[in-house]
Amino acid sequence: MVGPLLSRSLLLTLQPLASEDVGALLDRAVADPRGLDGRVNLAPQAREHILRVAGADARKALTLLEAVADAALGLGSSTQDALPEITGEITERTMDAALVAYDKSGDQHYDVISAFIKSVRGSDVDAALHYLARMVVAGEDPRFIARRLVILASEDIGMADPQGLVIAQAAADAVTFIGMPEGRIPLAEATTYLATAPKSNRSYRAIDAAIADVRAGKAGVVPQHLRDAHYAGAERIGHGKSYVYSHDAPGGVAHQEYLPDSLRGSRYYQPTEYGFERTVTDRMARIRDMLGRDGS
Prior knowledge:
- Residues 39-121 form the AAA C-terminal domain.
- Helices cover 53% and strands 1% of the residues.
- By secondary structure, the protein is mainly α.
- The protein folds into 3 domains: 19-97, Helicase, Ruva Protein, domain 3 (Orthogonal Bundle), CATH 1.10.8; 107-196, Zinc Finger, Delta Prime, domain 3 (Up-down Bundle), CATH 1.20.272; 202-291, DNA polymerase III clamp loader subunits, C-terminal domain (post-AAA+ oligomerization domain-like).
- The protein has a two-stranded parallel sheet with strand order 1-2.
- Helix 3 (44-54) runs parallel beside helix 5 (88-94) and helix 8 packs parallel to helix 10.
- The radius of gyration is 30 Å and the shape is elongated.
């Protein structure tokens, strides 16, 4: 939303209807001449099932009621004088599963995917699987779900478990290869793995910090010993001079500066103590010592 436009607008937040409100709407739709006009009976079990599936969405509740009423009217009544009845059995058999409380083009689309990502990030595997199930049942594009898992694997798990990105990408490839409904299985596997994995956003924060420095003009000049020395005349102007080939150095780490002088001592990546990053923390301390950094 554009700020100036928002400041001149009246912003209203619509709250979900209560189950009692949607239930009253169903009862009125059954009896009202503009609705079913009392031509069917709505059994309590069927009524509860519609409410449960429609959630707080009155439009979905009415759509479901219309569908199951058509089915009941098509079957007729068991006796000549009785009205056709919408039973729980008819309701369960007739309902289109895609009418679950989720709208792929509306707010529910964004709310459910947001809850899904936040549940995985928050390590609540059961909640994550619940929201995944809602998207699967609603017919969400599995490639959309897979893409979000790939992003999450890098953003929220990162180096705490680098295998997370491998799992997420494998799930994305599997979904593309096998399609649905079987694609739900690798999606569930990836969701379970990522939700239970240790979490770190330090790689994500590191690149954003480095980008911020570059955009602020802190690029600096590439050190002479790191410049390309493969073209004719490069060595005469000092390119590559004094460069130490890392594989020839003790431990595979050469004591030399890699950052531009203006950024010497900068630290972007700060690993956590979680998962694999615990090992990375120890290794980075040794590397920085070998590089000749003072640890500041």
